[in-house]
Design brief:
Blueprint: H1 11-27, H2 31-38, H3 43-62, H4 71-76, H5 85-100, H6 103-128
Helix pairs in contact: 1-3, 1-5, 5-6
Amino acid sequence: MTLPPRFPISAAQIDTVVARFYAKVREHDVLSPMFFASIPNEATRWEHHEAKIARFWRNAILHERSYSGNPQHMHSMRPMIKPEHFAIWLGVFDEVLAEALPAELAASWSALAHRIGAGLRMGVVANQQPEGAVPKLR
């Protein structure tokens, strides 16, 4: 049984948002160094990454089951990623959503992105704490 989409969006709209987001990321003073540390500035490498992230979002929104990966692990194992980067990432993502989608659709996707971002941020915080430290839940 296939689950209905979380909200009405097309795969093409998802692809557009992802492409526009990463175009902004590559130009961003704070975010670009982190991404370039993991993804060389080569068109084919970025196309591969963007396709993978579009599959992530199609899975999260449309329930396509076309993505395999562990975003929590990938973010937590990169020491350049700091908890404060998630607010920046989400701000850029929200800008793209507002530019690319109708307001209601942008708000639905933004809410989902913020929930996912909060979880990823908590994983980064936990990974960067000294062993045995009291967990930080914010």
